[in-house]
Inverse folding.
């Protein structure tokens, strides 16, 4: 059995306990800020402890996951939803009957592209920068000069749909196999593939009973930095993904020793997010820099 005595998970759980308490106070309409005496948490914007509490995820739950739960193409709708990640744009897809409920035809592709270009021409927001899609770097590819909307609809989404049989099957098997299959699709990176898989873990009959629900997670750069800090390593250290996943799984397994009474159990997928946010928090605390965004009252949860 691995010895993880070198890990100090307390800073992460201290952050998580306070961050969730702030969210709970924010949602109490009777209370106004400040909701914390922590100057870092009151100044900068941090993600929620529980991804299910994020504003966009709440919207996707209500408007995509729940109404299309039994649709065999739910996984594909979630790919599109996470690539765009902006509720107003997705709502426009649905309103114009462009949502790929039955399949992904040329007509459907054209409708999605038209919606995105229409929003752009009116100066409206189309996407968020939360989940980035790999851009084409080969100047010889015919779609190198495509506008982003057409690149997404004609190339990225089309190539995902071309893998229909494999992805539809693995969307009921395991988080790792589905994420891996989606990452193999053109333009889809490992982070967005994993986040789509995480959405499916909240969908009954899909990946909610995946055998690797609490043993597999994608370790991104922020999670790695957070683990390095808790392990006392150089922030830039690059342990193997296997070691990092083992450390994150261990932290997940001992959470009951650190969670405050107001906390619910934290999924492994949320533990990895918390590690990323802890890195951001400790970066400020140690005088190494600051997050990109400051907290704006009334925005988010």
């Amino acid at each position: 059995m691995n010895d993880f005595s070198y890990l100090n998970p307390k800073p992460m759980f201290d952050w998580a306990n306070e961050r969730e308490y702030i969210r709970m106070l924010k949602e109490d309409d009777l209370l106004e800020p400040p909701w914390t005496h922590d100057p870092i948490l009151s100044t900068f914007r941090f993600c929620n402890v529980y991804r299910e509490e994020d504003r966009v995820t709440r919207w996707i739950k209500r408007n995509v996951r729940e109404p299309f739960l039994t649709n065999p193409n739910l996984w594909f709708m979630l790919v599109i939803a996470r690539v765009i990640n902006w509720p107003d744009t997705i709502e426009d897809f649905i309103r114009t009957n462009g949502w790929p409920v039955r399949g992904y035809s040329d007509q459907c592709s054209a409708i999605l592209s038209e919606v995105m270009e229409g929003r752009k021409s009116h100066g409206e927001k189309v996407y968020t920068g939360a989940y980035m899609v790999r851009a084409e770097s080969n100047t010889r590819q015919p779609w190198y000069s495509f506008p982003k909307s057409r690149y997404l609809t004609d190339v990225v989404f089309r190539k995902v749909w071309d893998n229909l049989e494999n992805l539809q099957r693995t969307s009921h098997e395991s988080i790792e196999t589905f994420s891996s299959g989606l990452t193999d699709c053109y333009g889809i990176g490992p982070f967005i593939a994993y986040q789509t898989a995480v959405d499916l873990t909240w969908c009954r009959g899909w990946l909610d009973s995946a055998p690797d629900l609490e043993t597999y997670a994608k370790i991104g750069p922020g999670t790695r930095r957070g683990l390095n800090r808790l392990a006392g390593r150089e922030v830039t250290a690059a342990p193997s993904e296997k070691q990092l996943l083992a450390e994150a799984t261990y932290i997940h397994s001992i959470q009951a020793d650190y969670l405050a009474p107001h906390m619910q159990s934290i999924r492994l997928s949320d533990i990895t997010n918390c590690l990323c946010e802890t890195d951001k928090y400790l970066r400020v605390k140690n005088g190494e820099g600051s997050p990109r965004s400051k907290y704006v009252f009334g925005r988010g949860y």
About this structure: The first helix runs from residue 10 to 26. The chain has 13 helices and no strands.
